């Protein structure tokens, strides 16, 4: 993800405590937390949010919230947002940013892995900026980049956490295994539409909308792949 840019121009911001401006929001980034401005995908994801994709008064789940920027941006429209991250440092960072942006009345930050902290809950919109690369993460920060099965587990659990007309927004990069991820979503019964695409010279970043396909809308069969 534009590692050359980080090495040449922004190395002083990587892995350090910094205050960023992301789509008009002040975002404090702790050293072990993914920087949404530096690596750009977080900022591009937030730029795709509109009142059409996140309806006014809706409920939103932000998985892998990191700094919390997605959850905080979604709170512009949503009545209630739950932000989840498996990293304790990311949870601490997100909670600080919720206070910094004065949205603590609408954003609840929880620690845990994917859907585990929201068992039995359903949402109108689910946000997910997944790890783009396969493999075991080397440290807390690397969890934002690598996972062996995060996308498969997300796809398998998504239907049970969407309201009747709910949908998910997922951002993927051509730098990662995006075609495989899209195939997993389709195999799990979701229709996919591109909402925003940006060409960043050495990668193409796309925000997709996932909604229930006919098989899921009619009810899950016993032999469904997810």
Please explain how this structure is put together.
The chain is built from seven helices and nine strands; from the N terminus they run αββαβαβαββαβαββα. With 226 residues, it is an alpha/beta fold. The chain has one domain (3-217): 3-Layer(aba) Sandwich (Rossmann fold). Strand 6, helix 5 (150-158) and strand 7 form a beta-alpha-beta unit. The radius of gyration is 17 Å and the shape is globular.
Give a short summary of the structure.
It contains 7 helices and 9 strands; from the N terminus they run αββαβαβαββαβαββα. By secondary structure, it is of the alpha/beta class. Strands 5-4-3-6-7-9-8 form a 7-stranded mixed sheet, sandwiched between helices. The protein has a two-stranded antiparallel sheet with strand order 1-2.
What gap, in angstroms, lies between the N and C termini? 30 Å
Instruction: Record the strand order, biggest sheet.
Output: 5-4-3-6-7-9-8
Enumerate how many helices there are, as a single number: 7
CA-atom Rg in angstroms:
17 Å
The total beta strand count reads 9
Structural class: alpha/beta
Largest sheet: 7 strands, mixed
Order of helices and strands: HEEHEHEHEEHEHEEH
Overall tally of domains: 1
CATH class annotation: Alpha Beta
* Mean of pLDDT: 87
Q: Give the CATH topology.
A: Rossmann fold
What percent of the residues sit in helical stretches (DSSP H or I)? 25-40%
Low-confidence stretches at least 5 residues in length (pLDDT < 50)?
1-11
CATH homologous superfamily, by name? Vaccinia Virus protein VP39
Tell me the fraction of residues in β-strands, as a range: 25-35%
Can you tell me the overall shape? globular
CATH architecture assignment name: 3-Layer(aba) Sandwich
């Amino acid at each position: 993800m534009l590692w050359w840019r980080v090495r040449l121009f922004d190395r002083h911001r990587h892995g350090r405590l910094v205050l960023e401006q992301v789509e008009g929001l002040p975002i404090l980034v702790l050293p072990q937390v993914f920087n949404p401005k530096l690596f750009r995908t977080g900022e591009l994801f937030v730029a795709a949010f509109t009142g059409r994709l996140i309806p006014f008064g809706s409920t939103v789940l932000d998985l892998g919230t990191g700094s919390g920027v997605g959850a905080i941006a979604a709170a512009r429209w949503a009545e209630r947002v739950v932000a989840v991250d498996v990293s304790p440092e990311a949870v601490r960072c997100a909670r600080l940013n919720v206070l910094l942006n004065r949205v603590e009345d609408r954003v609840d930050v929880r620690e845990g892995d994917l859907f585990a902290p929201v068992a039995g809950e359903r949402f109108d919109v689910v946000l997910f900026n997944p790890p783009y690369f396969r493999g075991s993460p080397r440290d807390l920060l690397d969890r934002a980049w690598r996972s062996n099965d995060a996308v498969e587990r997300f796809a398998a659990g998504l239907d049970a956490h969407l309201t009747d007309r709910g949908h998910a927004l997922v951002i993927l990069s051509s730098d990662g295994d995006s075609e495989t991820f899209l195939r997993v979503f389709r195999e799990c019964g979701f229709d996919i539409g591109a909402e925003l695409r940006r060409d960043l010279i050495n990668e193409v970043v796309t925000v997709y909308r996932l909604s229930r396909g006919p098989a899921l809308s009619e009810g899950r069969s016993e032999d469904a792949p997810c």
